[in-house]
Amino acid sequence: MAQLALHQHGKSRVRLGRVWREGNVHHFVEWQVHTMLESDMELAFTDGDNTGMTATDTQKNTVYVIAKRMQKRCTIEQYATALAQHFVHTYPRVSKAKVWVEQAPWKRVQIGGIAHEHGET
Questions:
Q1: Which residue has the higher pLDDT, 70 or 121?
Q2: Which of 33, 41, 109, 119 is deepest in the core (most CB within 10 A)?
Q3: 3-state SS string over 100-111?
Q4: How many angstroms separate the CA atoms of 39 and 29, rounded?
Q5: Bridge partners for 16 per DSSP
Q6: Residue 2 has pLDDT above 70, yes or no
Q7: Are the beta carbons of 36 and 10 closer than 8 angstroms?
Q8: How far apart, in whole angstroms, are the C-alpha atoms of residue 72 and residue 80?
Q9: Residue 16 burial (CB < 10 Å; 0-12/13-18/19+)?
């Protein structure tokens, strides 16, 4: 009988915008997130049973949920770590989560040499 050596599946190019409000100052980031999960899903291939598989739409929605849960401004590394830990701790069949995050280069608008409180370009 054949054995599945490795199963991984993921979701790529999830576009995410996040704003953190600190008083009158708003901080905006735009990230593109890619997830890849390694999981024990041999039964999906041998028996047609995908019970416990973390679907790609679930992965996409989780990208948004974890970003919303990040109460304070964070780095892409902090966010990626929180997202990966969520997948591994929440889904029993997931043994490893890989997360890549790319940040778009937004800059705060300057008006008369002063940074605008919530304007980005």
A1: 70
A2: 33
A3: EEEECCCCEEEE
A4: 31
A5: 31
A6: no
A7: yes
A8: 14
A9: middle
Q: Give per-residue pLDDT as tens, 46-90.
A: 888 888 889 999 999 999 999 999 999 999 999 999 999 999 999
Q: Which of 89, 85, 121 is nearest to 105 (CA)?
A: 121
* Residue length of the chain: 121
DSSP state of 23: T
Question: What is the SS3 string spanning 64-115?
Answer: HHHHHHCCCCCCHHHHHHHHHHHHHHHCCCEEEEEEEEEECCCCEEEECCEE
What is the DSSP secondary-structure string of 24-79? TEEEEEEEEEEEEEEE--HHHHHTS--TT---HHHHHHHHHHHHHH--S---HHHH
**Cα–chain center distance at 4:** 27
Secondary structure of residue 6 in the 3-state scheme: coil
Determine contact, residues 94/37, Cβ cutoff 8 Å. Answer: yes
